[in-house]
Amino acid sequence: MREAWPSPVTGTSFTQGVVVAGQSVAVSAESDQLVAFGDGIESDAVTLSWGQLVQVGLAATTLRLVTGK
Q: Tell me, what's the pLDDT at 52?
């Protein structure tokens, strides 16, 4: 997980991390619009508003991306 960039306005300096099996991370929105997505695909984003909470963990199964060439 990561914050997009360090922010001198919010004081954010933690820009990445790892979620390990059996643990989760809870993130609360402290602004009007927090965008969360797990795979880097922007269309899969979930938008949270002030005070909403998202809990992130590892899925029991993994996704296999198959590309057609």
A: 92
Task: Name residue, tokens 């296999």.
Answer: 64
C-beta of residue 23 within 8 angstroms of C-beta of residue 52: no
DSSP secondary structure string, 3-25?
Answer: -SS-BTTTTB------PPTT-EE
Q: pTM for the complete prediction?
A: 0.55
- Cα-based angle 65, 69, 58 (whole degrees, multiple of 5): 5
The yes-or-no verdict on residue 28 having pLDDT over 80 is yes
As a whole number of Å, the end-to-end CA separation of the chain is 30
**3-state secondary structure at position 52:** coil
Say if residues 19 and 57 touch (Cβ distance below 8 Å): yes
How confident is the model at residue 39, as a pLDDT?
64
